[in-house]
Amino acid sequence: MAKVTKLKPREAGVSAAALDTPTDISPQAVKELSKALNTLLADTFALYLKTKNFHWHVSGPHFRSYHLLLDEQSDEIYATTDPIAERVRKLGGTTIRSISDISRHQTLKDNNAEFVPPLDMLRELMNDNKTCIAAMRKLHELCDKHDDVATASLLENYIDAAERRNWFLFEASRGAGQTGH
Fold first, then answer.
1. 7 within 8 A of 30, measured Cβ to Cβ
2. C-alpha span between 179 and 181 (Å, rounded)
3. Under 8 Å CB-to-CB from 58, ≥6 apart: which residues?
4. Which end of the chain is more exposed for a tag (fewer CB within 10 A), N or C?
5. Residue 13 phi/psi, 5° resolution?
6. Among 156, 162, 161, 127, which residue's Cα sits nearest to residue 140?
7. Is the predicted pLDDT of residue 163 greater than 90, yes or no?
8. Please, which pLDDT band fits residue 10 given cuts at 50, 70 and 90?
9. Closest Cα partner for 176 from 120, 128, 126, 114?
10. Cα(83)–Cα(148) distance, rounded to whole angstroms?
11. Comparing C-alpha atoms, which of 32, 17, 15 is closest to residue 147?
């Protein structure tokens, strides 16, 4: 039988006593994994919103194709947020709570430009997806260090999905000019 570790309340990223979740993962591992997962979660929300923003504001001759591609991708990205947050809680950590909390944790840059050419949109999202892929690979290594197979398994599927998004964005942007042709 695995030893259940009682977490100390109020440690960074660790639950208050009322939210304490029993786990056999060490308090230090919970802290490290929760921090990395919260950063991934914040970046996932940032990527979701940027993808949705570009979906709403894409323009040009490939409008329909890009509009539908970005809508599909934003839905896929958003669908990962709850499992990531729930993974933090299952580990015994606490997760982000607000938009301002997201902004404190995110590493991806927002894009508040009034107009972004379609090719720039696709390339920016491609780079953001590559950044998320790299972060997920690094987090996977942390999972391996702490024998957290459940989070590692989740990440493996998310890495594959992000690589697919990246591939689609790359192929959609090949040879395209600033107008999207």
1. yes
2. 6
3. 66, 67, 70, 118, 121
4. N
5. 75, 5
6. 156
7. yes
8. very low
9. 120
10. 15
11. 32
Token pair in block for residue 178: 């600033």
pLDDT band at residue 22 under the 50/70/90 scheme: confident
What is the C-alpha separation between 35 and 138, in angstroms, rounded? Answer: 13
Q: What is the arithmetic mean of pLDDT over 142-157? A: 98
- As a 3-state breakdown, the chain gives helix, strand, coil percent values, each rounded to 5, of 65, 0, 30
- Going along the chain from its start, the domains and CATH numbers come out as 22-173 (1.20.1260.10)
Angle of helix 27-57 relative to helix 81-91, nearest 10 degrees, comes to: 170
What are the φ and ψ backbone dihedral angles of 167, each rounded to 5 degrees? -60, -45
Residue 93, beta-bridge partner list: 14
Mean pLDDT over all residues of the chain?
90
* Residue 4: DSSP 8-state: P
103-132: per-residue pLDDT in tens?
999 999 999 999 999 999 999 999 999 999
What one-letter code names the amino acid at 21?
Answer: T
Q: What is the DSSP string of 92-138?
A: TB----SHHHHHHH--SPP---S---HHHHHHHHHHHHHHHHHHHHH
Q: Does residue 34 contact residue 97 with C-beta atoms inside 8 Å?
A: no
Distance CA 137, CA 40 (A): 11
168 token code pair: 């689609």
